[in-house]
TrEMBL record:
All residue ranges annotated as the FecR N-terminal domain in the record: 15-55
Sequence intervals crossing the membrane: 88-109
Annotated FecR protein domain residues: 116-208
Keywords for the protein's UniProt record, in alphabetical order: Membrane, Transmembrane, Transmembrane helix
Protein name: Transcriptional regulator
Species of provenance: Brevundimonas intermedia
PANTHER family: PERIPLASMIC SIGNAL SENSOR AND SIGMA FACTOR ACTIVATOR FECR-RELATED, PROTEIN FECR
């Protein structure tokens, strides 16, 4: 590698480290998210450096409880890789002590109460947990929360919520959703659970999505990435996501890029009190665009103008049929 290439590599590493710190800040702005997304998409080397910086942060975060350095020096990290192994060896006794303590604390962990949060279709709710985490829950959702001493547990049924998780390296935040488990320490992300699939979109930080039954099967996501897991084939598909629109429902709108009408109908059934269903011959019609969720009748009217469908109203709600 030439000297110029080395210099460029270290410059990208420094930029990546700075973005990791900025995106984890409490005062991160929409402008920051836009700039970070542009930087990540500009060069594959940016994404690789960012992932490495996030990995370094996550791997060493629980070892450092004092004041954190404002910037992670990835260049020095590359020269000290063996040092990281030594730090893990030093940390091993503390980890063993924590494991032993967990045995004695088990009865206390089991006594933590479970709190169920439920919203009706058309209702949204913001919940502040005792650890400082915040949940924005979409309509037609049910989830339960159990705040144990050594971990924070959430179970989601058919639901959608944005999680802004308070940082606590010693108390991971676990979300059981469908056949997956989402594991975080401190970050922000949107989870959408439907009858057929689970989708996790990362708005800030790092999220690990694994399998409830197979611990070795997992994917690691950073800001601007999403994973979809369909129940039918059990595949996990990772793709880029626009952080500005991934949780747009919290601002009264939905953004779609070539999505089936069946998915849009499910979203509308959360957003409004009257359920929306789709006839089988119209379920796979595709739609791209932004829907403002101001009024159900108005939204349905916009869909009728864009797609070859007609809406009929009955005792069971609104049904969308092909014209």
């Amino acid at each position: 590698m030439t000297q110029d290439a080395v210099i460029k590599d270290e410059e990208i590493a420094a930029q990546a480290a700075a973005w990791v710190v900025r995106l984890r800040a409490d005062d991160v702005t929409v402008e920051d998210l836009d700039a970070a997304a542009a930087w990540l998409s500009a060069d594959l080397a940016h994404r690789r450096a960012f992932d490495e910086a996030e990995g370094l942060w996550a791997a060493t975060d629980h070892l450092v409880h004092a004041q954190a350095s404002p910037v992670v020096d990835l260049a020095a990290h590359r020269e000290r890789r063996k040092g990281i192994d030594r730090r893990w060896m030093v940390a091993a006794p503390a980890m063993a002590a924590a494991l032993a303590a967990a045995v004695f604390l088990a009865p206390l962990l089991q006594s933590a109460p479970t709190v169920v949060y439920q919203t009706a279709p058309g209702e949204t709710r913001t919940v502040a947990l005792e650890d400082g985490s915040r949940l924005q829950i979409n309509g037609g959702s049910t989830l339960s929360v159990k705040m144990e001493l050594g971990r924070r547990l959430v179970h989601m049924d058919q639901a959608e919520a944005v999680f802004d998780v308070a940082h606590d390296a010693g108390r991971p935040f676990l979300i059981d959703v469908g056949e997956s488990q989402v594991r975080v320490v401190g970050t922000a992300f949107n989870i959408r659970r439907s009858a057929q699939e689970t989708e996790v979109s990362v708005l800030r930080g790092v999220v690990e999505v694994g399998d409830l039954d197979r611990s070795g099967r997992k994917v690691r996501l950073t800001v601007g990435q999403a994973v979809r897991r369909a129940d039918a084939d059990d595949r996990m598909t990772v793709a880029p996501v626009d952080v500005r629109t991934a949780a747009a429902w919290t601002r009264g709108r939905r953004a779609y890029d070539d999505k089936p009408l069946s998915e849009i109908a499910a979203d509308l059934s959360r957003a409004f009190a009257t359920p929306v269903t789709v006839a089988p011959d119209a379920a796979n019609l595709r739609f791209s665009g932004v829907l403002v969720l101001d009024d159900e009748t108005a939204v349905i009217g916009r869909l009728e103008r864009f797609l070859p469908i007609k809406a009929t109203r009955g005792p069971q709600g609104v049904r969308l049929e092909r014209r």
